[in-house]
Amino acid sequence: MKITRLGALYQLSFLPRIFPVNCYLVEQDDGLTLIDAALPFSKNGILDAARQIGKPITRIVLTHAHDDHVGSLDALKETLPDVPVYISARDARLLSGDVSLDPGEPNTPIRGGVPKKLKTRADVTLADGDRVGSLLAVAVPGHTPGSMAFLDTRSRAMIAGDAMQTRGGTAVSGQVKPLFPFPALATWNRQAALASARKLRECLPTLLAVGHGRMLDDPLQAIDSAILTAERTLAKNGKGA
User: Fold this and answer.
1) Pick the residue with more confidence: 26 or 18?
2) Among 30, 54, 123, 174, which lies 20 to 30 A Cα-Cα from 189?
3) Is 106 exposed, middle or buried (0-12, 13-18, 19+ CB in 10 A)?
4) Ranges assigned E (strand) in 120-168
5) Tens of pLDDT, residues 105-157
6) How far does the chain reach from its first CA to its final CA, in angstroms?
7) Which DSSP letter does residue 94 get?
8) Count of CB atoms situated within 10 Å of the CB of 204
9) How would you label 71-83 residue by residue, b for 16+ Cβ within 10 Å and e otherwise?
10) Do 58 and 72 contact (CB within 8 A), yes or no?
């Protein structure tokens, strides 16, 4: 595991040279907010990082319900049973393996590793605009129907989950980067993902932190380029799925 700190944000990267999977610890006045739970073997690394920082984990917030973002969730809840789990109301269904679509949602299959044996359920469900400590919940559907990003209102650091990637090049979810195609292959709807990337850009983030790849300081130019590429690709292909 590799730990990278930028201000109050700590990136914990598992398998960073092979298949980087990131989760994050955000320092708050009352302790640490864990964003995502990485891989099944990640519990000890997450707890060790919290001990090094010297603050307790007081909440667990999930960007979405894919296996590589909830992998150690059950193990963490066994160790931290009183720590509440937050996820969007929409992706709370995915925690139980429910991949049915809501009326009005694009009729494209939910892709990626949706958990099938996860025991943990949400203690708190989130909607766009909700606050979790210093974090503003930003609904960014596309990778999954209920994906969320979290903007730290103190620094404007954006923890975006898989709404974008930086491994293999900065890209909007659903846009294949040959050096790391996996987030694209696990994306539910590319047109929705593009709209969400534009929404992220409107938040004017000073830092972009994603599920796969390094953090980007001053990311607006990279985000603009990724949005332009996605727009061109979708226009060329003439479809949004």
Assistant:
1) 26
2) 123
3) middle
4) 124-126, 131-132, 135-139, 148-152, 157-159, 164-165
5) 999 999 999 999 999 999 999 999 999 999 999 999 999 999 999 999 999 99
6) 34
7) G
8) 10
9) bbbbbbbeebeeb
10) no
Domain CATH number, residue 212? 3.60.15.10
Q: Which two three-digit tokens encode residue 18?
A: 């092979």
**Which two tokens mark 109?**
């299959």
Q: How far apart are CA 64 and CA 145, in angstroms?
A: 9
Place of tokens 């139980």: 96
> Could you tell me the two tokens for 2?
């590799």
Using CA atoms, how far residue 130 sits from 62, 150, 155, 193, 240, in Å, is 14, 10, 17, 20, 28
> Is 77:120 a contact under the CB 8 Å cutoff?
yes
> Which domain covers residue 167, as residue numbers?
2-237
